[in-house]
Specification:
Length: 347
Protein backbone atom coordinates (compact mmCIF):
# COMPACT_ATOMS: atom_id res chain seq x y z
CA UNK A 1 0.00 0.00 0.00
CA UNK A 2 1.53 3.27 -0.97
CA UNK A 3 0.46 6.82 -1.32
CA UNK A 4 1.02 8.86 -4.44
CA UNK A 5 2.09 7.02 -7.58
CA UNK A 6 1.78 3.58 -6.07
CA UNK A 7 -1.89 4.16 -5.38
CA UNK A 8 -2.53 5.09 -9.02
CA UNK A 9 -4.57 2.54 -10.90
CA UNK A 10 -1.91 2.56 -13.61
CA UNK A 11 0.39 1.00 -11.06
CA UNK A 12 0.78 -2.48 -12.47
CA UNK A 13 3.21 -4.09 -14.84
CA UNK A 14 5.31 -1.64 -16.84
CA UNK A 15 3.12 1.38 -16.37
CA UNK A 16 4.54 3.81 -18.91
CA UNK A 17 7.80 4.22 -17.05
CA UNK A 18 10.94 5.67 -18.72
CA UNK A 19 13.59 3.23 -19.86
CA UNK A 20 16.14 2.32 -17.22
CA UNK A 21 19.08 0.02 -16.78
CA UNK A 22 18.15 -3.64 -16.40
CA UNK A 23 19.44 -5.96 -13.69
CA UNK A 24 21.55 -8.92 -14.65
CA UNK A 25 19.61 -12.07 -15.52
CA UNK A 26 19.30 -13.79 -12.16
CA UNK A 27 16.26 -16.07 -12.37
CA UNK A 28 16.69 -17.72 -8.96
CA UNK A 29 13.64 -17.67 -6.74
CA UNK A 30 15.13 -18.27 -3.34
CA UNK A 31 14.65 -20.91 -0.68
CA UNK A 32 13.38 -24.22 -1.94
CA UNK A 33 13.76 -23.09 -5.56
CA UNK A 34 10.21 -24.34 -6.21
CA UNK A 35 9.86 -22.84 -9.67
CA UNK A 36 7.47 -21.71 -10.88
CA UNK A 37 4.96 -23.36 -8.51
CA UNK A 38 5.32 -24.46 -4.92
CA UNK A 39 3.77 -27.85 -4.10
CA UNK A 40 0.03 -27.74 -3.64
CA UNK A 41 -1.19 -27.35 -0.10
CA UNK A 42 -1.33 -30.49 2.01
CA UNK A 43 -2.31 -29.08 5.40
CA UNK A 44 1.11 -29.93 6.82
CA UNK A 45 4.55 -28.30 7.22
CA UNK A 46 4.34 -24.46 6.92
CA UNK A 47 0.70 -24.65 5.82
CA UNK A 48 -0.31 -26.47 9.01
CA UNK A 49 1.67 -24.03 11.13
CA UNK A 50 -0.17 -21.11 9.55
CA UNK A 51 -3.52 -22.83 9.84
CA UNK A 52 -3.08 -23.45 13.53
CA UNK A 53 -2.10 -19.80 14.04
CA UNK A 54 0.60 -20.81 16.51
CA UNK A 55 3.41 -18.49 15.41
CA UNK A 56 2.55 -15.00 14.15
CA UNK A 57 6.03 -14.48 12.69
CA UNK A 58 5.83 -17.79 10.83
CA UNK A 59 2.35 -16.94 9.57
CA UNK A 60 3.65 -13.66 8.16
CA UNK A 61 6.59 -15.34 6.42
CA UNK A 62 4.38 -18.09 5.01
CA UNK A 63 1.85 -15.65 3.57
CA UNK A 64 4.64 -13.46 2.20
CA UNK A 65 6.14 -16.48 0.45
CA UNK A 66 2.78 -17.22 -1.18
CA UNK A 67 2.69 -13.67 -2.53
CA UNK A 68 6.25 -14.00 -3.82
CA UNK A 69 5.26 -17.24 -5.52
CA UNK A 70 2.27 -15.53 -7.12
CA UNK A 71 4.44 -12.76 -8.56
CA UNK A 72 7.04 -15.19 -9.91
CA UNK A 73 4.39 -17.44 -11.43
CA UNK A 74 2.63 -14.51 -13.08
CA UNK A 75 5.89 -13.26 -14.55
CA UNK A 76 7.03 -16.62 -15.92
CA UNK A 77 3.64 -17.72 -17.25
CA UNK A 78 3.89 -17.94 -21.05
CA UNK A 79 2.45 -16.78 -23.40
CA UNK A 80 0.76 -13.66 -21.98
CA UNK A 81 -0.47 -11.22 -24.63
CA UNK A 82 1.36 -7.90 -24.47
CA UNK A 83 3.02 -8.76 -21.16
CA UNK A 84 6.54 -9.73 -20.15
CA UNK A 85 6.95 -13.51 -20.08
CA UNK A 86 9.54 -16.19 -20.75
CA UNK A 87 9.38 -15.72 -24.52
CA UNK A 88 9.59 -11.94 -24.88
CA UNK A 89 9.16 -8.57 -23.16
CA UNK A 90 5.73 -7.93 -24.58
CA UNK A 91 4.99 -4.28 -25.27
CA UNK A 92 7.82 -3.12 -23.01
CA UNK A 93 11.26 -1.86 -23.93
CA UNK A 94 12.52 -1.14 -20.44
CA UNK A 95 12.13 -4.54 -18.79
CA UNK A 96 12.49 -8.29 -19.18
CA UNK A 97 11.70 -11.42 -17.21
CA UNK A 98 14.93 -10.91 -15.30
CA UNK A 99 13.68 -7.48 -14.19
CA UNK A 100 10.54 -9.03 -12.73
CA UNK A 101 12.42 -11.82 -10.98
CA UNK A 102 14.86 -9.32 -9.47
CA UNK A 103 11.97 -7.18 -8.26
CA UNK A 104 10.10 -10.12 -6.73
CA UNK A 105 13.28 -11.31 -5.02
CA UNK A 106 13.84 -7.87 -3.47
CA UNK A 107 10.25 -7.66 -2.29
CA UNK A 108 10.09 -11.15 -0.79
CA UNK A 109 11.60 -10.33 2.64
CA UNK A 110 9.39 -7.23 2.88
CA UNK A 111 6.03 -8.89 2.27
CA UNK A 112 5.69 -10.25 5.85
CA UNK A 113 5.75 -6.64 7.01
CA UNK A 114 2.25 -6.13 5.59
CA UNK A 115 0.95 -9.05 7.64
CA UNK A 116 2.61 -7.78 10.80
CA UNK A 117 1.22 -4.29 10.22
CA UNK A 118 -2.25 -5.77 9.85
CA UNK A 119 -1.83 -7.79 13.03
CA UNK A 120 -0.74 -4.73 14.99
CA UNK A 121 -3.72 -2.76 13.69
CA UNK A 122 -6.23 -5.60 14.07
CA UNK A 123 -8.63 -3.63 16.22
CA UNK A 124 -8.14 -0.23 14.60
CA UNK A 125 -10.78 1.36 12.39
CA UNK A 126 -10.14 0.81 8.70
CA UNK A 127 -8.78 4.31 7.90
CA UNK A 128 -6.22 4.02 10.69
CA UNK A 129 -5.30 0.43 9.82
CA UNK A 130 -4.65 1.44 6.21
CA UNK A 131 -2.00 4.01 7.14
CA UNK A 132 0.79 1.59 8.18
CA UNK A 133 0.08 -0.53 5.11
CA UNK A 134 0.56 2.45 2.85
CA UNK A 135 3.75 3.42 4.67
CA UNK A 136 5.14 -0.09 4.25
CA UNK A 137 4.13 0.02 0.60
CA UNK A 138 6.43 3.00 0.09
CA UNK A 139 9.29 0.95 1.48
CA UNK A 140 8.45 -1.85 -0.95
CA UNK A 141 8.25 0.58 -3.84
CA UNK A 142 11.73 1.90 -3.01
CA UNK A 143 13.14 -1.65 -2.86
CA UNK A 144 11.52 -2.43 -6.23
CA UNK A 145 13.11 0.61 -7.85
CA UNK A 146 16.50 -0.19 -6.37
CA UNK A 147 16.32 -3.76 -7.69
CA UNK A 148 15.18 -2.79 -11.19
CA UNK A 149 17.12 0.41 -11.84
CA UNK A 150 14.02 2.53 -11.52
CA UNK A 151 11.62 0.39 -13.55
CA UNK A 152 8.03 -0.02 -12.34
CA UNK A 153 7.43 -3.76 -12.29
CA UNK A 154 5.17 -4.36 -9.29
CA UNK A 155 3.44 -1.17 -8.10
CA UNK A 156 0.06 -2.72 -8.79
CA UNK A 157 1.09 -5.94 -7.08
CA UNK A 158 2.32 -4.07 -4.03
CA UNK A 159 -1.06 -2.34 -3.79
CA UNK A 160 -3.34 -5.34 -4.29
CA UNK A 161 -1.30 -8.06 -2.60
CA UNK A 162 -0.08 -5.78 0.18
CA UNK A 163 -3.69 -4.95 0.94
CA UNK A 164 -4.60 -8.65 1.07
CA UNK A 165 -1.63 -9.43 3.32
CA UNK A 166 -2.61 -6.65 5.70
CA UNK A 167 -6.18 -7.93 5.74
CA UNK A 168 -4.89 -11.44 6.49
CA UNK A 169 -2.91 -10.09 9.42
CA UNK A 170 -6.02 -8.48 10.89
CA UNK A 171 -8.03 -11.70 10.51
CA UNK A 172 -5.32 -13.86 12.06
CA UNK A 173 -4.81 -11.50 15.00
CA UNK A 174 -8.54 -11.61 15.74
CA UNK A 175 -8.53 -15.40 15.28
CA UNK A 176 -11.09 -15.12 12.50
CA UNK A 177 -11.25 -17.68 9.71
CA UNK A 178 -8.85 -17.07 6.82
CA UNK A 179 -10.88 -17.85 3.71
CA UNK A 180 -11.15 -16.25 0.29
CA UNK A 181 -14.43 -14.66 1.29
CA UNK A 182 -13.29 -13.31 4.64
CA UNK A 183 -9.96 -12.12 3.24
CA UNK A 184 -11.51 -10.20 0.34
CA UNK A 185 -14.19 -8.78 2.61
CA UNK A 186 -11.60 -7.52 5.08
CA UNK A 187 -9.53 -6.02 2.26
CA UNK A 188 -12.59 -4.24 0.89
CA UNK A 189 -13.39 -2.78 4.31
CA UNK A 190 -9.88 -1.32 4.54
CA UNK A 191 -10.28 0.72 1.36
CA UNK A 192 -13.98 1.62 1.46
CA UNK A 193 -14.41 5.15 0.12
CA UNK A 194 -11.04 5.21 -1.65
CA UNK A 195 -12.54 5.92 -5.08
CA UNK A 196 -14.60 8.77 -3.67
CA UNK A 197 -11.77 10.33 -1.67
CA UNK A 198 -8.92 9.84 -4.15
CA UNK A 199 -10.67 10.04 -7.52
CA UNK A 200 -14.18 11.48 -7.36
CA UNK A 201 -13.24 13.90 -4.61
CA UNK A 202 -10.18 15.26 -6.39
CA UNK A 203 -10.10 18.70 -8.05
CA UNK A 204 -11.12 18.72 -11.70
CA UNK A 205 -7.52 19.03 -12.82
CA UNK A 206 -6.03 15.52 -13.03
CA UNK A 207 -2.47 15.06 -11.75
CA UNK A 208 -2.02 11.39 -12.64
CA UNK A 209 -2.95 9.14 -15.54
CA UNK A 210 -5.37 7.32 -13.24
CA UNK A 211 -7.17 10.53 -12.30
CA UNK A 212 -7.34 11.58 -15.95
CA UNK A 213 -8.80 8.22 -17.02
CA UNK A 214 -11.37 8.36 -14.22
CA UNK A 215 -12.46 11.87 -15.17
CA UNK A 216 -12.66 11.11 -18.88
CA UNK A 217 -14.01 7.55 -18.86
CA UNK A 218 -15.23 6.87 -15.32
CA UNK A 219 -12.91 3.90 -14.87
CA UNK A 220 -11.93 3.29 -11.25
CA UNK A 221 -9.03 0.90 -11.89
CA UNK A 222 -7.21 -0.77 -9.02
CA UNK A 223 -8.98 1.27 -6.36
CA UNK A 224 -12.39 0.20 -7.59
CA UNK A 225 -11.43 -3.45 -7.82
CA UNK A 226 -10.03 -3.38 -4.29
CA UNK A 227 -13.17 -1.67 -2.97
CA UNK A 228 -15.25 -4.44 -4.55
CA UNK A 229 -13.27 -7.05 -2.62
CA UNK A 230 -11.60 -8.15 -5.88
CA UNK A 231 -14.93 -9.10 -7.42
CA UNK A 232 -13.48 -9.87 -10.85
CA UNK A 233 -11.14 -12.40 -9.28
CA UNK A 234 -13.74 -13.97 -7.00
CA UNK A 235 -16.46 -14.19 -9.63
CA UNK A 236 -14.51 -14.97 -12.79
CA UNK A 237 -10.76 -15.60 -12.83
CA UNK A 238 -10.50 -17.72 -9.68
CA UNK A 239 -13.48 -19.95 -10.63
CA UNK A 240 -12.02 -20.32 -14.14
CA UNK A 241 -8.64 -21.35 -12.71
CA UNK A 242 -10.13 -23.87 -10.30
CA UNK A 243 -12.53 -25.30 -12.90
CA UNK A 244 -9.73 -25.75 -15.45
CA UNK A 245 -7.60 -27.59 -12.90
CA UNK A 246 -10.56 -29.73 -11.89
CA UNK A 247 -11.05 -30.59 -15.56
CA UNK A 248 -7.50 -31.89 -15.76
CA UNK A 249 -5.57 -28.99 -17.26
CA UNK A 250 -2.09 -28.31 -15.91
CA UNK A 251 -1.72 -25.36 -13.56
CA UNK A 252 -0.03 -23.10 -16.11
CA UNK A 253 -2.79 -23.62 -18.70
CA UNK A 254 -5.41 -23.19 -15.99
CA UNK A 255 -3.81 -19.90 -15.04
CA UNK A 256 -3.94 -18.82 -18.68
CA UNK A 257 -7.67 -19.65 -18.62
CA UNK A 258 -7.98 -17.27 -15.67
CA UNK A 259 -6.06 -14.60 -17.57
CA UNK A 260 -8.44 -14.97 -20.50
CA UNK A 261 -11.39 -14.22 -18.21
CA UNK A 262 -9.64 -11.10 -16.95
CA UNK A 263 -8.84 -9.89 -20.46
CA UNK A 264 -12.53 -10.25 -21.36
CA UNK A 265 -13.95 -8.55 -18.27
CA UNK A 266 -11.38 -6.21 -16.72
CA UNK A 267 -11.71 -2.53 -17.63
CA UNK A 268 -7.93 -2.30 -17.58
CA UNK A 269 -6.82 1.32 -17.24
CA UNK A 270 -3.33 0.39 -18.44
CA UNK A 271 -4.80 -0.56 -21.81
CA UNK A 272 -6.74 2.70 -21.88
CA UNK A 273 -3.61 4.68 -21.02
CA UNK A 274 -1.77 3.11 -23.95
CA UNK A 275 -4.49 2.74 -26.55
CA UNK A 276 -7.59 4.59 -25.41
CA UNK A 277 -10.93 2.86 -25.13
CA UNK A 278 -10.42 1.30 -28.54
CA UNK A 279 -7.32 -0.45 -27.19
CA UNK A 280 -9.39 -1.86 -24.34
CA UNK A 281 -12.16 -2.96 -26.71
CA UNK A 282 -9.66 -4.58 -29.08
CA UNK A 283 -8.22 -6.76 -26.31
CA UNK A 284 -11.69 -7.70 -25.08
CA UNK A 285 -12.79 -8.73 -28.58
CA UNK A 286 -9.67 -10.81 -29.17
CA UNK A 287 -10.00 -12.56 -25.80
CA UNK A 288 -13.71 -13.21 -26.28
CA UNK A 289 -13.00 -14.78 -29.66
CA UNK A 290 -10.42 -17.09 -28.10
CA UNK A 291 -12.95 -18.17 -25.50
CA UNK A 292 -15.59 -18.84 -28.16
CA UNK A 293 -13.08 -21.06 -29.96
CA UNK A 294 -12.73 -23.26 -26.89
CA UNK A 295 -10.48 -21.20 -24.67
CA UNK A 296 -7.94 -23.15 -22.67
CA UNK A 297 -9.48 -26.43 -23.81
CA UNK A 298 -8.82 -25.79 -27.50
CA UNK A 299 -5.83 -27.74 -28.90
CA UNK A 300 -4.35 -24.56 -30.41
CA UNK A 301 -4.98 -22.36 -27.35
CA UNK A 302 -1.32 -21.56 -26.72
CA UNK A 303 -0.69 -20.82 -30.40
CA UNK A 304 -3.66 -18.45 -30.52
CA UNK A 305 -2.48 -16.70 -27.36
CA UNK A 306 0.93 -16.25 -29.01
CA UNK A 307 -0.74 -14.72 -32.05
CA UNK A 308 -2.69 -12.40 -29.76
CA UNK A 309 0.60 -11.50 -28.10
CA UNK A 310 1.99 -10.38 -31.45
CA UNK A 311 -1.15 -8.35 -32.14
CA UNK A 312 -0.93 -6.50 -28.82
CA UNK A 313 2.79 -5.85 -29.22
CA UNK A 314 2.15 -4.37 -32.67
CA UNK A 315 -0.35 -1.97 -31.05
CA UNK A 316 1.84 -1.27 -27.98
CA UNK A 317 -0.88 -2.61 -25.68
CA UNK A 318 -0.13 -4.17 -22.30
CA UNK A 319 -2.90 -5.37 -19.95
CA UNK A 320 -0.87 -4.73 -16.82
CA UNK A 321 -3.90 -4.39 -14.57
CA UNK A 322 -5.01 -7.88 -15.54
CA UNK A 323 -1.50 -9.15 -14.79
CA UNK A 324 -1.82 -7.82 -11.25
CA UNK A 325 -5.22 -9.47 -10.84
CA UNK A 326 -3.77 -12.71 -12.16
CA UNK A 327 -1.24 -12.68 -9.32
CA UNK A 328 -4.13 -12.02 -6.93
CA UNK A 329 -5.95 -14.99 -8.47
CA UNK A 330 -3.07 -17.32 -7.77
CA UNK A 331 -2.60 -16.04 -4.22
CA UNK A 332 -6.29 -16.50 -3.43
CA UNK A 333 -6.21 -19.97 -4.96
CA UNK A 334 -3.55 -20.88 -2.41
CA UNK A 335 -5.75 -19.56 0.38
CA UNK A 336 -8.55 -21.68 -1.08
CA UNK A 337 -6.28 -24.76 -1.11
CA UNK A 338 -5.37 -24.32 2.55
CA UNK A 339 -9.02 -23.85 3.40
CA UNK A 340 -9.31 -22.70 7.00
CA UNK A 341 -12.76 -23.51 8.39
CA UNK A 342 -15.31 -20.72 8.67
CA UNK A 343 -16.30 -19.48 12.11
CA UNK A 344 -18.41 -21.99 14.00
CA UNK A 345 -17.06 -25.02 12.18
CA UNK A 346 -14.84 -27.59 13.81
CA UNK A 347 -11.13 -26.85 13.26
Amino acid sequence: MTTGPCMDENGGEGRNEPEASRPSADLSVGQGDAFPFLPEATGSAPEKLALDRQEPAAQAIWLGDLVHEALVCEATLTPKPGLVDASNSGSHKDMSLATFIASAKALRPLFPGFVKAGMQAADDAAPLALLPLRSHGLICEQAMHEATGGVNTHKGGIFALGLLLGAAGRLLAREDALTVSSLCGEAASLVQGLVKSELAGKPKTANTAGEYIFRRYGLTGARGEAESGFALVRQYSLPAFLAAKQAGLDRETALLAALLELLIRNRDTNLVARGGMEGLFFVRREAQQLKQLGGAFAPDFHARLSAMDEALIARNLSPGGSADLLAVTLFLSRIDEIGQPDSGEAP
